[in-house]
Amino acid sequence: MGPVTLAFLLAALAWALVAGAHLRQRHPVWFWHLTGYPVTALRVVRTWRKVAILTDLTASPRPARGLLGDLVVKGEALRPVAPRISFPKATRTGLSVLVRLHPGQTPAPFIQAADALAHAWKVHAVRVTSPERGLVHLVATAGDPLQKPGLATVKPTLLSALLGICEGGGAWVMNLRKVPHWLIVGATQSGKSTLLARLIVQFAPQPVALVGIDCKGGMELGLFSLRLSALATSRREAVAVLGALVARMHQRMELCRTHDARSIWELPAKLRPVPIVVIVDELAELYLSDGTRESKTEAEKCSTSLLRIVQLGAALGLHVIVAGQRVGSELGPGVTALRAQLAGRICHRVNDPGTAEMTLGDLNKDAVAVAQSITAEEKGVAVCTGTGGGWERARSHLTTVEEAHKTAATYGHLTPELLDLRKALYDLVVRRDAGQ
Ligand SMILES: Nc1ncnc2c1ncn2[C@@H]1O[C@H](COP(=O)(O)OP(=O)(O)OP(=O)(O)O)[C@@H](O)[C@H]1O
């Protein structure tokens, strides 16, 4: 090889490296389609049989026992057959494979083998779902898209909030018209309050009343006080606000009954009351009692009112979003009933397996395992339900204090007046000043 050819080859290599780096940064999806996908697809096809055998995903056409003269011989089948797979199809962030199950096979061993598949295919994660009987869908994500999340775009609709991005690259949306009440769980510093802030930023421009209950002295939700129709910063205030909301709920019931409507959405637009979203930061502050009669009574009142709102409120335009570090029965007898009514679940990093189990366990076992694997560095990362595919890993958009102030100032004039709630809070002040 002459020096000119060598120089040309080196220049071409250097150009390819620079172009590759540019493509990877500017057009990661193209980069994946041109480079990562072909290699990974070939790896999937080449390793499938071996991986299937090692992870017990095969079936044997012959029984694993036979007769040798008068002896029954038990042992491994000679030729285990791996289930058939489709050719891997490229997705924006990885690839997907459809597996046709052998008769007698179920998706369960595939869910257990997901980690082994991710290692064999050298991808970040493999998700297993079963879109129809006899089929298993394996979705592999090449890298972790939540490391440097961008922000997806969606058309804004009433009572829906774009929270961040899902692992599959789609938008993470909370839609209260579809799932009316939500539970957000996570250890301290896992990202709960940031998620609540994001929710308020998203609901602030909408014709929606926002009511805050932040018994940590209003430190988190107080940032948005200009856009909140009421803010309770202690449990005493929470009792008053929740009581007023229950009374308001009964008025709405009567209004619907008078107009033969089964929900506020069936009422004529000019009669329809404004939807109310109640946001509770740190549930435990409402339930825990120091043993005194007064604190027990307050906790019971909070528990009863919250439960009534989540049981009856959805059709009446009352929605509840509750955040807390734990949601176990140790907080009080009402918590388990409340949790059962909060159909939407979001689980950030947790300190103990029990909390992840309580938050997601009734939905999907492998969602629990994924929630437990969220590390302390992955702030804002959570496993969420209600995304269409059962559950998904997602990361919220980081809302800064400046953004919170700006939102409250910009949309403060849209705050609906809920005079009964304000009056309930005012009466408390009057009673306190009167020494009652
Ligand atoms: N989506 C995110 N992306 C990047 N950083 C985040 C994200 N969400 C939260 N954080 C960071 O994590 C830290 C803790 O977040 P946050 O206060 O929301 O946690 P928390 O669960 O409410 O904690 P606590 O229970 O102690 O109030 C914040 O400093 C914030 O900057």
From TrEMBL:
Source superkingdom: Bacteria
The entry's keywords: ATP-binding, Nucleotide-binding
Residue ranges of domain FtsK in the record: 169-357
Binding site for ATP: 186-193
InterPro entries, sorted: AAA+_ATPase, FtsK/SpoIIIE/SftA, FtsK_dom, P-loop_NTPase
PANTHER family in the cross-refs: DNA TRANSLOCASE FTSK, SPORULATION PROTEIN RELATED
Name of protein: FtsK/SpoIIIE domain-containing protein
Organism field: Streptomyces roseoverticillatus
